[in-house]
């Protein structure tokens, strides 16, 4: 799905977001990465109803005119690094701002990337030791495979892991450092039959756990193997909650898009399972949505809430997840078809949520401002500070 520019008229947006009282947004924790950038003011103030109580969610467009922004990761100064899938650019967004939003500057363009289909420059992760090593990690496609590499911005990209299967539609791309300090990557199966997801010798259809040198991390299920979990169709999003519980999105399955609680060594069933199963052989998803209503990409966690951004569903789902790993009440949605396809979703250092649109591709219907980065702040002081 290639990028394209559209000329559709900008629609007037009126957003009403419904949240149940089960979604609790307490005060955010301390900033993880310095002070927040000088952010532009909200463009929409949306009323959210929660039973007898009401709260407002401020929706701010931070940046416009991007092309398929795929991954977002934050630097210590509060600015964000954003990858563009098809241009192979890494952009720095903020911390400075102007009349039209945060300042956007190209800080790298990776000649090694060969975009096509859903492949290209995908996930990005900032080294936990960035203050001293200045290193970022990226997940990217070449003409024949997917790789993970590291670089200091402005210098040469160094591959640390090669041989991840490449295909037109299932390239994975999730990349994030876990609470344990190791690097995790979500890959795609890359085949129509799912043969690689169940092959322990293949890197396809897996969640991988590695050192910053691309080697198997200590404590992996099988010594000497990168595989943390298997049986995945396509993993575009990873996050952890405050209890260090790991969540991953799963998409491009024919029937369902999933949100999984990922556990060490578990098999998530692809290709034999698509959504929830009744047997005990495979791990069941936390939630499975019909694909047309979801196909979720990014995932973020804050307080007791897990949020996912959806491409086909064109919305964000919010789930209130209990301490024992079950969903309390029904998932709630917001931004439903207000900004089109939504892809990346991350919790910013200040507790707000950043989400990217993905309309500059063949499946999208872009307007002149697409693609955009959008910030969500909940007025009760939970997700973001107002």
UniProtKB/TrEMBL annotation:
Keywords: Signal. Residues 1-26 form the signal peptide. InterPro entries: 6-blade_b-propeller_TolB-like, Glc/Sorbosone_DH, Quinoprot_gluc/sorb_DH_b-prop. Residues 66-361 form the Glucose/Sorbosone dehydrogenase domain. It comes from the Bacteria. PANTHER family: HEDGEHOG-INTERACTING PROTEIN (PTHR19328), HIPL1 PROTEIN (PTHR19328:SF13). This is Glucose/arabinose dehydrogenase, beta-propeller fold.
């Amino acid at each position: 799905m290639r990028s394209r520019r559209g000329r559709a008229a900008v629609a007037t947006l009126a957003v009403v977001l419904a949240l149940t009282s089960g979604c609790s947004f307490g005060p955010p924790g301390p900033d993880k990465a310095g002070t927040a950038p000088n952010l532009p003011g909200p463009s929409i103030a949306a009323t959210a109803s929660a039973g007898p109580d009401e709260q407002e969610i401020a929706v701010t467009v931070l940046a416009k005119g991007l092309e398929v922004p795929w991954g977002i990761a934050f630097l210590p100064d509060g600015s964000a690094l954003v990858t563009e899938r098809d241009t192979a650019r890494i952009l720095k967004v903020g911390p400075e701002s102007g009349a039209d939003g945060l300042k956007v500057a190209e800080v790298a363009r990776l000649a090694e990337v060969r975009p096509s289909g859903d492949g290209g420059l995908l996930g990005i992760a900032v080294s936990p030791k960035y203050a001293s090593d200045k290193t970022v990690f990226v997940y990217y496609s070449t003409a024949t495979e997917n790789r993970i590499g590291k670089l200091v911005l402005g210098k040469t990209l160094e591959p640390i892991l090669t041989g991840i299967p490449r295909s037109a539609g299932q390239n994975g791309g999730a990349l994030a450092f876990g609470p344990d300090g190791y690097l995790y990557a979500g890959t795609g199966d890359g085949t129509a039959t799912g043969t690689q997801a169940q092959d322990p010798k293949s890197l396809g259809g897996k969640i991988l756990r590695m050192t910053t040198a691309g080697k198997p991390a200590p404590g992996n299920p099988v010594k000497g193997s990168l595989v943390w979990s298997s049986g995945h169709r396509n993993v575009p999003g990873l996050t952890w909650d405050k209890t260090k519980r790991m969540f991953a999105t799963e998409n491009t399955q024919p029937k369902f898009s999933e949100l999984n609680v990922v556990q060490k060594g578990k098999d998530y069933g692809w290709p034999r399972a698509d959504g929830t199963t009744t047997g005990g052989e495979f791990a069941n998803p936390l939630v499975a949505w019909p694909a047309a209503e979801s196909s979720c990409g990014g995932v973020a966690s804050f307080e007791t809430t897990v949020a996912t951004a959806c491409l086909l569903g064109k919305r964000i789902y919010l789930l209130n997840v209990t301490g024992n790993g079950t969903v309390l009440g029904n998932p709630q949605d917001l931004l439903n078809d207000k900004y089109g396809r939504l892809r990346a979703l991350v919790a910013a250092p200040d507790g707000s949520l950043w989400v990217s649109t993905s309309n500059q591709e063949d499946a999208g219907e872009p307007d002149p401002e697409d693609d955009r980065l959008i910030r969500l702040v909940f007025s009760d002081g939970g997700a973001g500070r107002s």
